[in-house]
Write the C-alpha coordinates for this entry.
Amino acid sequence: MHMTPEEFRRHGREVVDWIAAYLEQLEELPVASTVEPGWVRAQLPEHAPEHGEPFADVLADLDRVIVPGLLHWQSPGFFGYFSANSSGPSILGELLSAGLGVQGMLWSTSPAVTELETHVLDWLVELLDLPERFRSTGTGGGVIQDSASSAVLCAVIAARERAGGAALVGYTSTQTHSSVEKAFRIAGLGAESLRLVPVDEAFALDLDALRALVAEDHAAGLTPFFCCATVGSTSSEAIDPVRAIGELCRREGIWLHVDSAMLGVAAICPEHRPLLNDGLELADSYCTNAHKWLLVNFDCTLFWVADRAALISSLSVLPEYLRNAASESGAVIDYRDWQVPLGRRFRALKLWMVLRHYGADGLRAVLREHVSMTREAETWLAADDRFELLAPPGLNLLCFGLRNRPDEETERLMAAVNATGEAFLTHTKLDGRFAIRLMIGSARTERRHVERVWELLQQHAPEPARISSPD
Ligand code: PLP
Protein backbone atom coordinates (compact mmCIF):
# COMPACT_ATOMS: atom_id res chain seq x y z
CA MET A 1 0.00 0.00 0.00
CA HIS A 2 2.78 2.45 0.92
CA MET A 3 4.98 3.57 -1.91
CA THR A 4 7.93 1.18 -1.81
CA PRO A 5 11.44 2.68 -1.75
CA GLU A 6 11.87 1.50 -5.34
CA GLU A 7 8.58 3.12 -6.46
CA PHE A 8 9.54 6.27 -4.60
CA ARG A 9 12.86 6.41 -6.44
CA ARG A 10 11.14 5.95 -9.79
CA HIS A 11 8.32 8.43 -9.21
CA GLY A 12 10.70 10.84 -7.54
CA ARG A 13 12.78 10.91 -10.71
CA GLU A 14 9.62 11.41 -12.76
CA VAL A 15 8.61 14.34 -10.59
CA VAL A 16 12.03 15.98 -10.78
CA ASP A 17 11.97 15.46 -14.57
CA TRP A 18 8.46 16.95 -14.67
CA ILE A 19 9.61 20.05 -12.77
CA ALA A 20 12.69 20.45 -14.96
CA ALA A 21 10.54 20.20 -18.11
CA TYR A 22 8.02 22.68 -16.68
CA LEU A 23 10.74 25.21 -15.94
CA GLU A 24 12.25 24.67 -19.40
CA GLN A 25 8.98 25.28 -21.23
CA LEU A 26 7.79 28.18 -19.03
CA GLU A 27 8.60 30.73 -21.67
CA GLU A 28 6.19 29.08 -24.11
CA LEU A 29 3.23 29.10 -21.72
CA PRO A 30 0.88 32.09 -21.51
CA VAL A 31 1.93 33.74 -18.25
CA ALA A 32 -1.56 34.15 -16.80
CA SER A 33 -4.22 31.47 -16.62
CA THR A 34 -7.26 32.06 -18.81
CA VAL A 35 -9.61 29.55 -17.17
CA GLU A 36 -13.09 30.64 -16.14
CA PRO A 37 -14.07 30.44 -12.47
CA GLY A 38 -15.05 26.86 -11.63
CA TRP A 39 -13.16 25.32 -14.60
CA VAL A 40 -10.57 23.55 -12.44
CA ARG A 41 -13.18 22.05 -10.12
CA ALA A 42 -15.26 20.94 -13.06
CA GLN A 43 -12.33 18.79 -14.23
CA LEU A 44 -12.15 16.99 -10.89
CA PRO A 45 -14.28 14.00 -9.84
CA GLU A 46 -17.02 14.81 -7.41
CA HIS A 47 -15.83 12.27 -4.85
CA ALA A 48 -12.42 11.47 -3.39
CA PRO A 49 -10.96 8.21 -4.74
CA GLU A 50 -12.07 5.14 -2.82
CA HIS A 51 -9.12 3.17 -4.18
CA GLY A 52 -5.55 4.21 -4.83
CA GLU A 53 -4.73 5.32 -8.37
CA PRO A 54 -1.59 4.93 -10.48
CA PHE A 55 0.93 7.69 -9.97
CA ALA A 56 1.12 8.23 -13.74
CA ASP A 57 -2.55 9.26 -13.75
CA VAL A 58 -1.90 11.89 -11.12
CA LEU A 59 1.05 13.28 -13.07
CA ALA A 60 -1.07 13.38 -16.23
CA ASP A 61 -3.72 15.38 -14.39
CA LEU A 62 -1.06 17.84 -13.33
CA ASP A 63 -0.69 18.75 -17.02
CA ARG A 64 -4.39 18.46 -17.83
CA VAL A 65 -6.02 20.18 -14.86
CA ILE A 66 -3.46 22.04 -12.80
CA VAL A 67 -1.10 23.75 -15.25
CA PRO A 68 -3.89 25.51 -17.21
CA GLY A 69 -5.14 26.94 -13.91
CA LEU A 70 -1.83 28.54 -12.96
CA LEU A 71 -0.42 32.02 -13.13
CA HIS A 72 3.20 31.15 -13.90
CA TRP A 73 5.05 33.09 -11.23
CA GLN A 74 8.39 31.65 -12.39
CA SER A 75 7.86 32.75 -15.99
CA PRO A 76 10.46 35.15 -17.39
CA GLY A 77 7.50 37.29 -18.49
CA PHE A 78 6.25 37.69 -14.93
CA PHE A 79 6.43 41.39 -14.02
CA GLY A 80 3.48 41.51 -11.61
CA TYR A 81 3.04 42.04 -7.86
CA PHE A 82 6.37 41.32 -6.22
CA SER A 83 8.39 38.35 -7.42
CA ALA A 84 8.04 35.06 -5.54
CA ASN A 85 11.09 33.31 -6.88
CA SER A 86 12.18 29.76 -6.58
CA SER A 87 15.41 28.18 -7.81
CA GLY A 88 16.90 24.72 -8.31
CA PRO A 89 18.67 24.53 -4.94
CA SER A 90 15.64 25.91 -3.16
CA ILE A 91 13.27 23.37 -4.72
CA LEU A 92 15.66 20.58 -3.77
CA GLY A 93 15.99 21.97 -0.23
CA GLU A 94 12.20 21.94 0.05
CA LEU A 95 12.12 18.34 -1.17
CA LEU A 96 14.75 17.32 1.37
CA SER A 97 12.82 19.05 4.13
CA ALA A 98 9.71 17.04 3.20
CA GLY A 99 11.85 13.93 2.90
CA LEU A 100 13.18 14.34 6.42
CA GLY A 101 9.71 15.16 7.72
CA VAL A 102 10.95 16.50 11.04
CA GLN A 103 9.41 19.08 13.38
CA GLY A 104 11.61 21.79 14.82
CA MET A 105 9.38 23.26 17.50
CA LEU A 106 11.92 22.60 20.25
CA TRP A 107 15.69 22.30 20.04
CA SER A 108 15.30 18.78 21.37
CA THR A 109 12.83 17.74 18.64
CA SER A 110 15.68 18.03 16.08
CA PRO A 111 18.72 20.04 17.20
CA ALA A 112 19.91 20.50 13.60
CA VAL A 113 16.69 22.30 12.58
CA THR A 114 17.18 24.95 15.25
CA GLU A 115 20.94 25.31 15.04
CA LEU A 116 21.10 25.53 11.25
CA GLU A 117 18.37 28.21 11.33
CA THR A 118 20.10 30.26 14.02
CA HIS A 119 23.42 29.96 12.25
CA VAL A 120 22.17 30.88 8.79
CA LEU A 121 20.29 33.89 10.18
CA ASP A 122 23.52 35.01 11.87
CA TRP A 123 25.28 34.60 8.50
CA LEU A 124 22.63 36.83 6.98
CA VAL A 125 23.17 39.54 9.60
CA GLU A 126 26.71 39.69 8.23
CA LEU A 127 25.78 39.30 4.56
CA LEU A 128 23.15 42.05 4.73
CA ASP A 129 25.27 44.17 7.08
CA LEU A 130 22.48 44.35 9.65
CA PRO A 131 23.10 45.72 13.15
CA GLU A 132 25.09 43.42 15.44
CA ARG A 133 22.31 43.45 17.99
CA PHE A 134 20.24 41.18 15.74
CA ARG A 135 22.77 38.38 16.13
CA SER A 136 21.92 35.40 18.32
CA THR A 137 25.29 35.74 20.05
CA GLY A 138 24.09 38.97 21.70
CA THR A 139 20.66 39.79 23.09
CA GLY A 140 18.84 39.33 19.79
CA GLY A 141 18.49 36.67 17.16
CA GLY A 142 16.80 35.64 13.96
CA VAL A 143 14.05 33.20 13.14
CA ILE A 144 12.36 32.08 9.93
CA GLN A 145 8.65 32.88 9.85
CA ASP A 146 6.19 31.73 7.22
CA SER A 147 5.47 35.29 6.10
CA ALA A 148 6.11 38.96 6.71
CA SER A 149 2.53 39.06 8.01
CA SER A 150 3.39 36.61 10.79
CA ALA A 151 6.58 38.53 11.52
CA VAL A 152 4.74 41.81 12.10
CA LEU A 153 2.12 40.01 14.21
CA CYS A 154 4.88 38.66 16.47
CA ALA A 155 6.43 42.13 16.64
CA VAL A 156 3.11 43.70 17.66
CA ILE A 157 2.55 41.07 20.36
CA ALA A 158 6.08 41.49 21.76
CA ALA A 159 5.71 45.28 21.71
CA ARG A 160 2.38 45.06 23.54
CA GLU A 161 3.95 42.81 26.19
CA ARG A 162 6.83 45.27 26.64
CA ALA A 163 4.50 48.28 26.86
CA GLY A 164 1.98 46.70 29.25
CA GLY A 165 -1.01 48.84 30.20
CA ALA A 166 -4.05 49.78 28.21
CA ALA A 167 -5.04 52.40 25.64
CA LEU A 168 -2.17 51.40 23.33
CA VAL A 169 -1.80 53.04 19.92
CA GLY A 170 0.43 52.21 16.98
CA TYR A 171 1.57 54.06 13.85
CA THR A 172 2.31 53.23 10.27
CA SER A 173 1.99 55.02 6.96
CA THR A 174 -0.97 54.87 4.60
CA GLN A 175 1.32 52.97 2.19
CA THR A 176 2.19 50.21 4.63
CA HIS A 177 1.24 46.65 3.79
CA SER A 178 -2.20 45.61 5.02
CA SER A 179 -0.58 42.93 7.20
CA VAL A 180 0.04 45.56 9.91
CA GLU A 181 -3.66 46.33 10.24
CA LYS A 182 -4.37 42.61 10.19
CA ALA A 183 -1.85 42.10 13.02
CA PHE A 184 -3.60 44.76 15.11
CA ARG A 185 -6.91 43.05 14.54
CA ILE A 186 -5.60 39.57 15.34
CA ALA A 187 -3.84 40.86 18.46
CA GLY A 188 -7.19 42.19 19.66
CA LEU A 189 -6.02 45.80 19.56
CA GLY A 190 -8.43 46.62 16.75
CA ALA A 191 -7.72 48.51 13.56
CA GLU A 192 -8.82 51.70 15.33
CA SER A 193 -5.66 51.49 17.50
CA LEU A 194 -3.50 51.88 14.42
CA ARG A 195 -2.96 55.43 13.18
CA LEU A 196 -2.36 55.71 9.44
CA VAL A 197 0.21 58.45 8.99
CA PRO A 198 0.06 60.49 5.75
CA VAL A 199 2.91 60.28 3.25
CA ASP A 200 4.94 62.84 1.32
CA GLU A 201 5.11 63.21 -2.46
CA ALA A 202 7.50 60.24 -2.65
CA PHE A 203 4.95 58.09 -0.76
CA ALA A 204 7.26 57.93 2.29
CA LEU A 205 5.92 58.43 5.82
CA ASP A 206 5.63 62.11 6.71
CA LEU A 207 7.68 62.55 9.87
CA ASP A 208 6.02 65.78 11.01
CA ALA A 209 2.64 64.12 10.74
CA LEU A 210 3.90 61.19 12.83
CA ARG A 211 5.27 63.57 15.49
CA ALA A 212 1.97 65.42 15.62
CA LEU A 213 -0.07 62.22 15.97
CA VAL A 214 2.15 60.91 18.77
CA ALA A 215 1.84 64.22 20.64
CA GLU A 216 -1.92 64.24 20.12
CA ASP A 217 -2.25 60.71 21.47
CA HIS A 218 -0.13 61.49 24.52
CA ALA A 219 -2.33 64.49 25.21
CA ALA A 220 -5.39 62.25 24.97
CA GLY A 221 -3.94 59.92 27.61
CA LEU A 222 -3.11 57.11 25.15
CA THR A 223 0.14 55.12 25.09
CA PRO A 224 2.07 55.06 21.80
CA PHE A 225 3.72 51.62 21.75
CA PHE A 226 4.44 50.45 18.19
CA CYS A 227 5.47 51.84 14.84
CA CYS A 228 6.05 50.01 11.57
CA ALA A 229 8.32 51.68 9.02
CA THR A 230 8.51 50.28 5.51
CA VAL A 231 11.61 50.06 3.37
CA GLY A 232 10.13 49.29 -0.03
CA SER A 233 6.36 49.72 0.07
CA THR A 234 4.20 47.23 -1.77
CA SER A 235 2.68 49.77 -4.14
CA SER A 236 5.75 51.70 -5.24
CA GLU A 237 8.82 50.66 -3.17
CA ALA A 238 8.71 53.91 -1.21
CA ILE A 239 11.23 54.10 1.62
CA ASP A 240 10.27 55.59 4.98
CA PRO A 241 12.84 57.75 6.83
CA VAL A 242 13.82 54.95 9.22
CA ARG A 243 16.56 56.82 11.11
CA ALA A 244 14.37 59.80 11.97
CA ILE A 245 11.43 57.54 12.83
CA GLY A 246 13.76 55.41 14.97
CA GLU A 247 15.04 58.44 16.87
CA LEU A 248 11.48 59.48 17.65
CA CYS A 249 10.60 55.92 18.72
CA ARG A 250 13.66 55.76 21.01
CA ARG A 251 12.65 58.97 22.75
CA GLU A 252 9.07 57.79 23.14
CA GLY A 253 9.79 54.18 24.09
CA ILE A 254 7.93 52.98 20.97
CA TRP A 255 8.81 49.57 19.50
CA LEU A 256 10.04 50.10 15.93
CA HIS A 257 9.46 47.29 13.45
CA VAL A 258 10.97 47.71 9.99
CA ASP A 259 9.26 45.84 7.17
CA SER A 260 11.56 45.41 4.19
CA ALA A 261 9.82 42.37 2.80
CA MET A 262 10.79 42.93 -0.82
CA LEU A 263 13.91 45.06 -0.80
CA GLY A 264 15.79 44.09 2.36
CA VAL A 265 17.69 41.23 0.76
CA ALA A 266 19.24 43.67 -1.73
CA ALA A 267 21.51 44.83 1.10
CA ILE A 268 23.61 41.83 0.13
CA CYS A 269 24.97 44.35 -2.44
CA PRO A 270 27.00 46.95 -0.53
CA GLU A 271 25.93 49.72 -2.93
CA HIS A 272 22.31 49.48 -1.69
CA ARG A 273 23.07 49.55 2.03
CA PRO A 274 22.96 53.34 2.46
CA LEU A 275 19.45 53.30 1.00
CA LEU A 276 18.15 50.18 2.75
CA ASN A 277 19.91 49.92 6.09
CA ASP A 278 20.21 53.48 7.36
CA GLY A 279 18.89 53.67 10.92
CA LEU A 280 18.26 49.95 11.35
CA GLU A 281 20.28 49.96 14.57
CA LEU A 282 17.30 51.84 16.05
CA ALA A 283 14.85 49.07 15.13
CA ASP A 284 13.56 46.57 17.68
CA SER A 285 12.61 44.13 14.95
CA TYR A 286 13.22 43.77 11.24
CA CYS A 287 12.00 41.52 8.48
CA THR A 288 12.77 40.74 4.88
CA ASN A 289 11.49 37.93 2.67
CA ALA A 290 14.01 35.49 1.25
CA HIS A 291 10.96 34.17 -0.62
CA LYS A 292 10.63 37.25 -2.77
CA TRP A 293 13.95 38.27 -4.29
CA LEU A 294 16.54 35.92 -2.74
CA LEU A 295 15.61 32.90 -4.88
CA VAL A 296 14.22 30.87 -1.97
CA ASN A 297 10.71 29.61 -2.63
CA PHE A 298 7.81 30.57 -0.37
CA ASP A 299 7.75 30.42 2.63
CA CYS A 300 10.88 31.94 4.10
CA THR A 301 10.57 35.25 5.93
CA LEU A 302 13.69 36.33 7.81
CA PHE A 303 12.75 38.01 11.07
CA TRP A 304 15.17 39.44 13.61
CA VAL A 305 14.66 40.97 17.03
CA ALA A 306 17.14 43.03 19.02
CA ASP A 307 15.87 41.68 22.37
CA ARG A 308 14.75 38.07 22.06
CA ALA A 309 13.62 38.02 25.72
CA ALA A 310 10.80 40.43 24.87
CA LEU A 311 9.56 38.21 22.05
CA ILE A 312 9.88 34.97 23.98
CA SER A 313 8.13 36.27 27.08
CA SER A 314 5.17 37.32 24.95
CA LEU A 315 4.79 34.00 23.12
CA SER A 316 6.01 31.32 25.51
CA VAL A 317 3.52 28.92 27.05
CA LEU A 318 4.97 25.70 28.45
CA PRO A 319 2.66 22.70 28.81
CA GLU A 320 3.97 19.69 30.72
CA TYR A 321 4.29 17.48 27.63
CA LEU A 322 6.89 19.81 26.10
CA ARG A 323 9.14 20.03 29.19
CA ASN A 324 12.64 18.73 28.61
CA ALA A 325 16.10 19.02 30.11
CA ALA A 326 17.63 20.97 27.22
CA SER A 327 14.96 23.70 27.40
CA GLU A 328 15.30 23.89 31.15
CA SER A 329 19.08 24.26 30.93
CA GLY A 330 18.50 27.61 29.18
CA ALA A 331 21.31 26.72 26.78
CA VAL A 332 19.15 26.22 23.68
CA ILE A 333 16.69 28.10 21.50
CA ASP A 334 13.16 26.70 21.28
CA TYR A 335 11.75 28.41 18.21
CA ARG A 336 8.14 27.55 19.14
CA ASP A 337 8.47 30.57 21.48
CA TRP A 338 9.33 32.86 18.56
CA GLN A 339 6.23 32.25 16.41
CA VAL A 340 2.47 31.66 16.48
CA PRO A 341 2.23 27.92 15.67
CA LEU A 342 3.87 25.19 17.68
CA GLY A 343 5.04 22.98 14.82
CA ARG A 344 7.62 24.20 12.37
CA ARG A 345 9.09 23.01 9.11
CA PHE A 346 12.78 22.69 8.33
CA ARG A 347 12.82 25.88 6.26
CA ALA A 348 16.45 26.74 6.92
CA LEU A 349 17.48 23.86 4.68
CA LYS A 350 16.37 25.53 1.43
CA LEU A 351 17.86 28.85 2.49
CA TRP A 352 21.16 27.15 3.36
CA MET A 353 21.17 25.34 0.03
CA VAL A 354 20.53 28.55 -1.91
CA LEU A 355 23.31 30.37 -0.06
CA ARG A 356 25.72 27.51 -0.67
CA HIS A 357 24.79 27.01 -4.31
CA TYR A 358 24.97 30.64 -5.44
CA GLY A 359 27.33 32.06 -2.84
CA ALA A 360 26.88 35.71 -1.91
CA ASP A 361 28.55 36.78 -5.15
CA GLY A 362 26.14 34.71 -7.24
CA LEU A 363 23.14 36.24 -5.52
CA ARG A 364 24.59 39.73 -5.90
CA ALA A 365 25.00 39.12 -9.63
CA VAL A 366 21.32 38.13 -10.02
CA LEU A 367 20.04 41.14 -8.07
CA ARG A 368 22.39 43.55 -9.84
CA GLU A 369 21.15 42.34 -13.21
CA HIS A 370 17.55 43.07 -12.18
CA VAL A 371 18.44 46.52 -10.89
CA SER A 372 20.37 47.34 -14.03
CA MET A 373 17.51 46.18 -16.30
CA THR A 374 15.14 48.36 -14.26
CA ARG A 375 17.42 51.38 -14.74
CA GLU A 376 17.46 50.70 -18.47
CA ALA A 377 13.66 50.37 -18.68
CA GLU A 378 13.45 53.66 -16.78
CA THR A 379 15.38 55.40 -19.57
CA TRP A 380 13.06 53.88 -22.21
CA LEU A 381 10.04 55.19 -20.35
CA ALA A 382 11.58 58.61 -19.96
CA ALA A 383 12.29 58.77 -23.71
CA ASP A 384 8.67 58.09 -24.73
CA ASP A 385 6.51 61.06 -23.90
CA ARG A 386 3.32 59.01 -24.06
CA PHE A 387 4.30 57.62 -20.64
CA GLU A 388 5.03 59.14 -17.26
CA LEU A 389 6.34 57.75 -14.01
CA LEU A 390 3.77 58.07 -11.22
CA ALA A 391 6.19 57.43 -8.34
CA PRO A 392 9.94 57.74 -7.86
CA PRO A 393 11.52 54.68 -9.50
CA GLY A 394 12.21 51.76 -7.15
CA LEU A 395 15.22 49.44 -7.20
CA ASN A 396 13.38 46.87 -9.30
CA LEU A 397 10.00 48.55 -9.82
CA LEU A 398 8.60 51.25 -12.08
CA CYS A 399 5.09 52.63 -11.60
CA PHE A 400 3.78 54.52 -14.59
CA GLY A 401 0.75 55.51 -16.60
CA LEU A 402 -0.20 57.19 -19.85
CA ARG A 403 0.47 60.91 -19.78
CA ASN A 404 -2.61 63.15 -20.06
CA ARG A 405 -4.91 60.21 -20.60
CA PRO A 406 -7.75 58.96 -18.43
CA ASP A 407 -7.04 56.03 -16.12
CA GLU A 408 -9.27 53.75 -18.19
CA GLU A 409 -6.79 53.96 -21.07
CA THR A 410 -3.86 52.98 -18.86
CA GLU A 411 -5.95 50.14 -17.50
CA ARG A 412 -6.83 49.01 -21.03
CA LEU A 413 -3.17 49.15 -22.01
CA MET A 414 -2.23 46.81 -19.16
CA ALA A 415 -5.05 44.43 -20.03
CA ALA A 416 -3.96 44.40 -23.68
CA VAL A 417 -0.37 43.53 -22.76
CA ASN A 418 -1.52 40.80 -20.37
CA ALA A 419 -3.89 39.39 -23.01
CA THR A 420 -0.90 38.58 -25.25
CA GLY A 421 0.15 35.96 -22.69
CA GLU A 422 3.77 37.01 -23.21
CA ALA A 423 3.99 39.20 -20.14
CA PHE A 424 2.11 39.78 -16.94
CA LEU A 425 1.75 43.17 -15.26
CA THR A 426 -0.28 44.30 -12.24
CA HIS A 427 -1.35 47.72 -11.04
CA THR A 428 -1.74 49.95 -8.04
CA LYS A 429 -3.30 53.33 -7.32
CA LEU A 430 -1.00 56.23 -6.53
CA ASP A 431 -2.51 59.54 -5.49
CA GLY A 432 -5.76 58.21 -6.90
CA ARG A 433 -4.25 57.42 -10.32
CA PHE A 434 -4.16 54.01 -11.92
CA ALA A 435 -0.51 52.98 -12.20
CA ILE A 436 0.96 50.00 -14.03
CA ARG A 437 3.67 48.31 -11.98
CA LEU A 438 6.62 46.84 -13.88
CA MET A 439 8.51 44.71 -11.38
CA ILE A 440 11.77 43.31 -12.71
CA GLY A 441 12.78 40.74 -10.12
CA SER A 442 12.02 37.30 -11.52
CA ALA A 443 14.94 34.90 -11.57
CA ARG A 444 14.43 33.86 -15.20
CA THR A 445 13.84 37.32 -16.63
CA GLU A 446 16.54 38.34 -19.09
CA ARG A 447 17.07 41.60 -20.91
CA ARG A 448 15.17 40.33 -23.98
CA HIS A 449 12.07 39.73 -21.86
CA VAL A 450 12.17 43.29 -20.55
CA GLU A 451 12.66 44.55 -24.11
CA ARG A 452 9.66 42.51 -25.17
CA VAL A 453 7.31 43.83 -22.48
CA TRP A 454 8.42 47.35 -23.36
CA GLU A 455 7.73 46.63 -27.05
CA LEU A 456 4.25 45.37 -26.14
CA LEU A 457 3.58 48.46 -24.03
CA GLN A 458 4.63 50.69 -26.90
CA GLN A 459 2.59 48.76 -29.46
CA HIS A 460 -0.58 48.89 -27.39
CA ALA A 461 -0.21 52.45 -26.11
CA PRO A 462 -2.46 54.94 -27.92
CA GLU A 463 -0.71 57.38 -30.22
CA PRO A 464 -0.51 60.92 -28.83
CA ALA A 465 -3.50 63.07 -29.85
CA ARG A 466 -2.48 65.19 -32.83
CA ILE A 467 -3.15 68.90 -32.67
CA SER A 468 -4.97 69.54 -35.91
CA SER A 469 -4.22 72.72 -37.76
CA PRO A 470 -7.18 74.85 -38.96
CA ASP A 471 -6.33 74.33 -42.64
N1 PLP B 1 5.20 43.75 3.63
C1 PLP B 1 5.48 44.20 2.40
C2 PLP B 1 6.22 45.49 2.24
C3 PLP B 1 5.10 43.47 1.27
O1 PLP B 1 5.37 43.93 0.05
C4 PLP B 1 4.41 42.24 1.45
C5 PLP B 1 3.98 41.45 0.29
O2 PLP B 1 4.17 41.78 -0.84
C6 PLP B 1 4.14 41.81 2.75
C7 PLP B 1 4.55 42.59 3.81
C8 PLP B 1 3.41 40.55 3.02
O3 PLP B 1 4.23 39.47 2.74
P1 PLP B 1 3.87 38.00 3.20
O4 PLP B 1 3.14 37.37 2.08
O5 PLP B 1 5.22 37.36 3.45
O6 PLP B 1 3.05 38.08 4.44
Summary: DSSP finds 16 helices and eleven strands in the chain.
